[in-house]
Amino acid sequence: MQRLFAFLVVVFITKSNDVSGDFRPPAVPLIVFSPHISVWSCSDNLTDSDTVHWSGSPLAFYGLIDIDNSQTYRFLGTQPSNIPPLIQNNVVVQPWRTIYKFSTPTNTIELIVSFSQPTSIEDPYTYITFDVRTLDQKTHNVRIYFEESSRLSINDKNEKISWNRIDGDITILTMNSYNQIPFGIRGDATRNNWGYAHLISSNKNTTNGYQGFGDNLRQAFVNHQIMPNDDTRKPRHADDQSPSSVFIINLNQVTSTTISSYLIFLYDDLYSMLYFEDWQIPCWRIELNNNITLLINEAVSYYQSNMADITDSNELLITLLTNTGGTQYSLLASLVTRQITGALTRTWSNKYNRPQLYMKEISSDGDVSTVDVIFPSSPFFLWLHPEILRDILIPVLAYANNETTIDYNLAWAPHHLGTWPICDILPDEQEQMPMEESANMLLMLAGIVQRLAKTDFLQPYWNVMEIWAQYLNSTLPDPGNQLCTDDFEGPSPHNCNLALKGILGLGAYAILLNSTGQTQRATIYMNQAQEHANYWMQAARDDENYRLQYDLPNTWSQKYNLIYQSILSLNLFPSDVAKLESNYYATKMLDFGIPLDSRSKLTKTDWTSWIAAFSNDQQQENEIFSKIYKFANESPDRVPFSDLYNASNGHVLGFRARPVMGGLFIRALLESPLIENIYIQPTKPSQRRGRVNKCELL
Fold first, then answer.
1. How far apart are CA 357 and CA 272, in angstroms?
2. Are 442 and 468 contacting, i.e. CB atoms less than 8 angstroms apart?
3. Which of 74, 212, 343, 346 qualifies as a cystine partner to 283, CB 3.0-4.6 A?
4. What is the per-residue pLDDT across 359-393, written as a single tens digit (0 to 9) for each?
5. Rounded CA gap, 473 and 466, in Å?
6. Alphabetically, which GO biological process terms does the record hold (predicted)?
7. pTM for this model (two decimals)
8. Which CATH architecture has domain 28-270?
């Protein structure tokens, strides 16, 4: 805590930079706290289109403001289409908050709408805050209408939906699938259709709640009519006069002094993960005695402290990012923060009596904890919270160590655990990437150990790590015809970048051995890694660069794996290797970045940021990151920030909203000090008052 306070002092001294600028995100995160509750705006203005899931399927919210019972405007969504929109003055995306600023065409009222996400990944809710003031020095009567559509709690519009409400000091409007079948569906773009979506207000004096056909509720508000009674025709199909939950906030007389009000959107999925026949609940449930009322009360009671924590954490992170890489870098990293954390789910396992943490491979396969998706995200966690990365890897380690109902019998690390949210994959059903995943695991584990200065969590897994290291050593220096993480490019036997990863992975295992005093064995493995590195530098060399494959002269590829030598302070490859590659990449620069390799113009955002970071030329590093910024700012494809695109024209080539964007934090990891406890674990002890703390592993 003392170290955190020192960082916060820096923030308040240096936070003068304005990071909003003219940045146009490809899509804006609004409510993003899990893979299925992931709500985005994919337009310049919040009123240009309806909000959607990362996959593009509808997850609509609507917002209206009425002034003096005479003029109504839209500020969120496209409906009613005959109602004019407010003027959107700007949008700012911070790591844990998105802020929209609006004004009326006549400049009489200013409305600021904020979507704020608590920094703890256990908290499945978002605050929606409305700040209103007058701009014309007059007093105006203001009402706000906020609507949650029926799709938030179901996967398909043909499903039946039900709803109910609880009135009291706190008003809770709930919507849910009528047929609750946990783990009845799985997949990439699917959303949980079990659990309960709650829209919550803590101020019964100024806020009234309604549930019914959304079109009727909107028209009643616009026409200044008495609002309809709650609809009782339930359950019914979601596309049958689609029901909605609505709050109307009566701000009454508004002056030039800002009046603030807020709502909470909270989702309780009841069961979050089926881990090899183990039904696991969301972790907050074990801390709050399985009681949703306690979670709602906590979200309301700690609104002020949560909002202060979000503000402090945003200011701290933005300042550090700006000081590291400038305003554009800070904007990019802020944009992807919730994209990364929104792919995570922390659960509680009664079987193992511990929390478990999982990452979804969003938009590329829907797999659970894909190792070569966790790997590119690792700089984010190694910089901000290495314990989180450790916790993500432990279910993978446990699976490989035969702690589940599946007999894992492969000599290399798993690729993934199943298809979200069900872990049940057999070893021979894996997408086999032996060198890729084995090296990924060892590299990340070494990074965690170096930053935590702890090895006790590895104690059960030394046998499997030894098996992986032996596999790497026996296969190097040439991986042969293996898949690597860039499998979308097609086969690439004798891949030099993959071999590079394997060599560094072997060095990482030597680091792990050394950290537990096994110095003799560490030396043996490090010497083996050095022999393989020496071979690589000769066999992979072309005239001006290193090849795509050992057997293909006049080819090239991004050797992004080399960055882990810097992360782990390994010395297997001389600095000349990175310098030679960096100089060559400069000759391949296109309008939106550097292609992944000589086969096409496609590139990867995460890997490109890694090759930028091992450049010794600050100007070149800045130029590469400026190309990534240009892609985010100018790509014609309006989807959550993609990591796969055409470096020539900026068109997205498929992936979106993936947590691999944690790779962008590589620059901060290498150039800024390690930050402790600003992220995920709350910085204010009051936020955990009344909880039994069980969600931090080990």
1. 10
2. yes
3. 346
4. 999 998 899 999 999 999 999 999 999 999 999 99
5. 10
6. carbohydrate metabolic process
7. 0.95
8. Distorted Sandwich (2.70)
